[in-house]
Fold this sequence. Notes:
The chain contains no helices and 10 strands. It is mainly beta.
Amino acid sequence: ENYNEATTTIQVVINKAYVALPTVEPTTYGNTLADVKLPTSEFGTWTWKAGNSTSVGTAGTHTFVAVFESSSGNYEDYETNVNVVVNKKVLTIDILNSTYTYDGNAHTVEFKVTGVVEGDNNPVVNGNQSLTDAGSVNVTLTINTPNYEATQSCVLTIEPKIEEFPELLEVECD
């Protein structure tokens, strides 16, 4: 009795949601964005704006733009910055020769470095020692540059030279 009956129309606007921001696993120097996997979503697809062939850059943290394209009318298409951690590349130091026979000359460990990114110069290897006289010394070869690291240990050995003597003649005396 103290009120009148009324009807009205209410318009409710439901905004599209945003899919959660992507996080990615660290990658390694020398890789491209193709090696950095964006998450999968049942609501759309993540891609790298710069393209999969883009280098991830030097070791450190770099920011790239990821693009979300919705496959559902309930989520927004959008772009967002994603931090990509780039780790140093671990190289391999193969020992080619660490044992010599004494010859009066100084010798060092002979080695080969593999795994260097195409276009880069071989990094400096530290820790090699020189040995001239017969004996042994422990050697630890290391690489530690802004983009590379490696460690390899071995023993540098100079073996004594074995002199060969001419065959002795047997002489009989009376």
